[in-house]
């Protein structure tokens, strides 16, 4: 769809070649390939960027949510009388006050807005309160009397198969049996392993917050840091019993997002309270409520058996993967598909037999987190590659090189790898990079010891290990997901505006959108409008979608505007638009006859165009785990150098050397920052991040009890190679950057600790006792 307001353009003769006299100073560089800074960086650094927790409205009420203290219980009664009668309380809502659909969920709508008959996990919402003051709201929520019949929780996913159903839909969410090749084949060398991956929390910088404002038409507007506003709107409308057009989600600043970011149940509680009271209602979650409410990475149990010949070539991989979904399905079916499909890693495996299950338990809910599914299996299959290398007496990097995947090879799902897959090139790049120098064995250098400056270790007990890992992720959604996105580009005067409902979560989409328009139209001043559900949908902010799909939509819309801009000039001079080019705000013809500025060509016109981008379709995995389920793949190689105190089990990661398949570098500084952040997040999963539970109850749901890496924990991260082999089916040829280093770095750290200690290291995060070398 396109539109234009007509006007006349001014055209001048071209100046002599090389004549720059009297011209303006060279404009700052812009467009694709330039490290353009983020437009909102000044506001964020100055502390004036508007987040949901900063919002205010006239007549504001405050919300609080009552959550279950038990992971499993029957609810015998809920008495809200005392809370309702407290001074300052304006409304109390429970399951009985939900006018529409009582179920919601990211993938499957199996989660109640408020628990009523049973409680299925610690922290599940029971009721919500709106009051004049936040303290009053919290006191009123605590005053709600709930009588529970506490039940024995099912917390071991292995017991979920035989346990009584925890949900009307049963305990099994999905089972994927992948069969590829001949099950009777046996390798000459066999290694087995058992691996456990912990529960990593997204731990956003800012806890969840939101503001709901009732509308005169009986609808409601919800201001929150949603990463999928249209899906959240549809869930909310169904819950409120309203038509979707009467619910509007307005996206505020997103204070960190490494997952779906928001607990949708919080938005539903806010909307119900606003509709009930007729007043704006705000909720700012505490850190504890944030830990209890949103989804986490799936804890996973993996059993592996690798078969190889005497030369180290893989023959067959057998694996069992059990993912703990927690109380509700969320995106567990998607995570399991990724885990099963990538269970063999970026290696050529002629025969593969993988069984994968995702089950419900009474543990905290699991959901989308960068590299879900792929991260868990990467830690396992790379552990197996280290075991094979040790058993065959081979170099760990060499055995990987003998088996790496390349373009044209088959995945165990039967899908041909058609995108660039420079896995061998990536591995050689990190392998050939010089190693860091060894620390000096003197007291003056004790800050180099694992454990830091105050560490109790002795230099003589420190061993250095070098480990390798190769990781892969899929791009966009999978198994038939419709990944369409829509964008509009408007040009008026010397300013362009982009309207696209792609949420800026820190991935850099808003900066990329500006660069695309600058590159295509030669306009330096480009604004990206805020996101709300009045705009067409752009889908979820995950799997690199917005770089590919939303960026593609912006590019197509900008090109349509470009055609509108150039057509009158081309017609006037009797040439096609393909013979005109735009650089640095100037329009010139191939022969130099035509030269004018973009502003002169516009001459007061307003041009606009709306376009969509939809990647080629995929298909679900069949009953044997076969199918073309993925649009594209991205790869990464990491070498980790770690020092381990083999007496205390303390670990210091000295250096992470990274080579990554990026397709095309669109913003060098932004790309490197994304890779470094991904490596650091993976380091957390490897060494410290584990949301611990006791019988389903979260222990220490705060940033004191949940350890995360800080700047002091981050090692030297050296990005030694970015392979720019463009994917021809992707707009600009670029690939997502942040998920694949998250997937790869935990496996690399574990590999380095194995090399230093000789221990198998089958659990993440790595416990100190696991890194203590066995006595000789």
TrEMBL record:
SUPFAM superfamilies for the chain: CO dehydrogenase molybdoprotein N-domain-like, Molybdenum cofactor-binding domain
GO molecular function: iron ion binding; oxidoreductase activity
Taxonomy, superkingdom: Bacteria
Domain Aldehyde oxidase/xanthine dehydrogenase a/b hammerhead: 46-152
Biased segments, Low complexity type: 7-18
SMART domains in alphabetical order: Ald_Xan_dh_C
InterPro entries in UniProt: Ald_Oxase/Xan_DH_a/b, Ald_Oxase/Xan_DH_a/b_sf, Ald_Oxase/xanthine_DH-like, AldOxase/xan_DH_MoCoBD1, AldOxase/xan_DH_MoCoBD2, AldOxase/xan_DH_Mopterin-bd_sf
UniProt-annotated stretches for the region Disordered: 1-39
Cited Gene3D superfamilies: Aldehyde oxidase/xanthine dehydrogenase, a/b hammerhead, Aldehyde oxidase/xanthine dehydrogenase, molybdopterin binding domain
Pfam families, sorted: Ald_Xan_dh_C (PF01315), MoCoBD_1 (PF02738), MoCoBD_2 (PF20256)
Protein name as catalogued: Oxidoreductase
Provenance organism: Streptomyces paromomycinus
Lineage: Bacteria, Bacillati, Actinomycetota, Actinomycetes, Kitasatosporales
């Amino acid at each position: 769809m396109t539109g234009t307001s007509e006007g006349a353009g001014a055209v001048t003769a071209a100046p002599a070649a090389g004549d720059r006299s009297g011209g303006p100073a060279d404009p700052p560089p812009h467009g694709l390939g330039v490290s353009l800074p983020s437009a909102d960086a000044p506001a964020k650094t100055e502390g004036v960027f508007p987040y949901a927790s900063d919002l205010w409205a006239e007549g504001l009420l405050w919300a609080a949510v009552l959550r279950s203290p038990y992971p499993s219980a029957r609810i015998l009664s809920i008495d809200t009388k005392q809370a309702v009668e407290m001074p300052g309380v304006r409304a109390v809502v429970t399951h009985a006050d939900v006018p529409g659909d009582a179920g919601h969920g990211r993938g499957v709508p199996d989660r109640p807005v408020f628990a009523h008959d049973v409680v299925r996990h610690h922290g599940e919402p029971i009721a919500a309160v709106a009051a004049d003051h936040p303290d009053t709201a919290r006191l009123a929520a605590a005053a709600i009397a709930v009588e529970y019949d506490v039940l024995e929780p099912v917390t071991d996913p292995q017991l979920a198969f035989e346990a009584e159903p925890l949900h009307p839909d049963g305990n099994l969410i999905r089972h994927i049996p992948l069969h590829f090749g001949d099950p009777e084949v046996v390798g000459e060398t066999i290694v087995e392993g058992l691996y456990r991956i912990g529960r990593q929390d997204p731990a956003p910088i800012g806890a969840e917050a939101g503001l709901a404002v009732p509308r005169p038409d009986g609808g409601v507007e919800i201001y929150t840091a949603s990463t999928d506003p249209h899906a959240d709107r549809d869930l909310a409308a169904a819950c409120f019993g309203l038509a979707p057009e009467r619910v509007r989600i307005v996206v505020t600043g997103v204070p960190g997002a490494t997952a779906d970011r928001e607990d949708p149940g919080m938005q539903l509680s806010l909307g119900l309270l606003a509709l009930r009271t007729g007043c704006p209602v705000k909720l700012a979650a505490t850190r504890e409520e944030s830990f209890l409410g949103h989804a986490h990475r799936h804890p996973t149990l993996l059993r592996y058996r690798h078969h190889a010949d005497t030369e180290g070539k893989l023959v067959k991989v057998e694996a069992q993967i059990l993912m703990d979904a927690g109380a509700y399905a969320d995106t567990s079916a998607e995570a399991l598909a990724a885990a099963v499909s990538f269970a063999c890693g970026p290696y050529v495996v002629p025969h593969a037999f993988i069984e994968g299950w995702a089950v419900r338990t009474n543990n905290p809910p699991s959901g989308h987190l960068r590299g879900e599914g792929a991260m868990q299996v990467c830690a396992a299959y790379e552990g197996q590659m280290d075991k094979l290398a040790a058993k065959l007496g081979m170099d760990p990097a060499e055995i990987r090189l003998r088996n790496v995947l390349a373009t044209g090879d088959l995945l165990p799902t039967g899908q041909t790898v058609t995108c660039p897959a420079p896995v061998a090139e990536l591995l050689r790049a990190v392998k050939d990079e010089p190693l860091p120098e060894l620390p000096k064995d003197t007291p003056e250098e004790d800050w180099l010891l694992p454990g830091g400056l105050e560490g109790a270790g002795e230099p003589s007990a420190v061993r250095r290990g070098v480990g390798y890992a190769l990781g892969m992720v899929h791009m966009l959604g999978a198994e038939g997901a419709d990944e369409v996105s829509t964008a509009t580009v408007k040009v008026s005067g010397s300013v362009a505006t982009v309207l696209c409902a792609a949420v800026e979560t820190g991935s850099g989409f808003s900066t990329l959108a500006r660069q695309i328009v600058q590159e295509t139209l030669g306009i330096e001043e480009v604004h990206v409008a805020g996101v709300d559900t009045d705009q067409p949908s752009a889908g979820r902010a995950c799997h690199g979608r917005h770089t590919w799909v939303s960026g593609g939509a912006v590019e197509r819309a900008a090109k349509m505007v470009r055609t509108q801009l150039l057509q009158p000039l081309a017609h006037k001079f009797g040439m096609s638009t393909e013979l005109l080019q735009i650089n640095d705000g100037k329009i010139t013809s191939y022969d130099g006859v035509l030269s004018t500025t973009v502003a002169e060509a516009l001459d007061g016109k307003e041009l606009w165009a709306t376009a969509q981008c939809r990647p080629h379709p995929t298909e679900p995995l069949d009953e044997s785990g076969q199918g073309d389920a993925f649009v594209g793949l991205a790869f990464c190689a990491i070498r980790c150098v770690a020092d381990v105190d083999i007496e205390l089990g303390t670990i210091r990661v000295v250096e992470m050397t990274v080579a990554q398949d990026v397709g095309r570098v669109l913003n060098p500084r932004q790309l490197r920052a994304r890779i470094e952040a991904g490596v650091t997040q993976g380091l957390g999963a490897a060494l410290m991040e584990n949301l611990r539970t006791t019988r389903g109850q979260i222990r220490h749901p705060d940033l004191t009890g949940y350890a995360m890496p800080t700047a002091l924990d981050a090692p030297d991260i050296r990005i030694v190679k970015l392979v720019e082999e463009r994917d021809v089916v992707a707009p600009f040829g670029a690939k997502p950057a942040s998920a694949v280093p998250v997937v790869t770095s935990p496996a690399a750290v574990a590999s380095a600790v194995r090399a230093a200690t000789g221990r198998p290291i089958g659990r993440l995060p790595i416990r100190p006792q696991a890194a203590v070398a066995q006595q000789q």
